[in-house]
Predict the 3D structure of the following.
Amino acid sequence: MAQLEDFNTTVTPTWCPGCGNYGIWNSLKQALSEMELEPYNTVLTYDIGCSGNMADKVNTYGFKSLHGRTVAAAMGIKIANPELTVIAIGGDGGVMEEGVNHLMWAARSNYNITVLMHNNQTFGLTTGQPTVTTEEGNPGKTAPLGIVENNIVPAQLALISNASFVAKTFAGNPKQMVKVMKSAVEHKGFSFVEFLQPCITFNKLNTFQWFQERVFDLAERKNYDASDWKRAFETASDVEKKIATGIIYQDKKSIPYSQRLVQRKGEKKTLVEEVKEYSIIQMIREFE
């Protein structure tokens, strides 16, 4: 049985001191160990950006994708070998901007993967350009006077894309992060978790203090029903005054994509096990 230290590597993080990524990174390893997952049976796919800087800092199988393709890579891995625990990691730029089509498709199809999106509302690695989640009026390197567009609310987009599990958590609350990640990974179907992650270097508006004054745990609302989609959407819509964290929506009756494929019904082997070896010698000789 894997212990927390089994998910450590010898590589030292290079995030800015005080970055919210440190809390997410440690909480992820804690969640993996508490779920008694094994490093050899777990795959993390990574995007480009500050979140992708985690790629060599968690001791599991890992796949470093192109920008915006972490969800697509996770989908392919899960189709090939459903026995693996597959988690896609990316930032708001990669998941909500370049890769938003992959996110919506994976949610619609209900692939049995978990997407962990670090939302610092800026392109941190390229020094502070606005993303689609940057609040209107907030300045950035390419919009020094503030952006004029309305921002996209990730939880709303996940819900209208038919995600069967949607949650939000705060990088300053490690206990909640661990709890939410465990629930997301254990969910049968597509799960989306948004981390409210302050960027202390380039986002001077959405700071740790800013979030601490606004976030609250949905678990404190005794009458909240996470199976009520309409209420979940309304809850996810408030991102300014009172920001709900925890499990916003969950369809516990959801059936993952792979289990709905008629052509795979009754098959006991995974696609990986069905792959055969083919000799390409003759093919090569045709070009000699």
In short: The first strand starts at residue 42 and ends at 46. The chain has one domain: 4-258. Residues 115 and 263 are 27 Å apart (CA to CA).
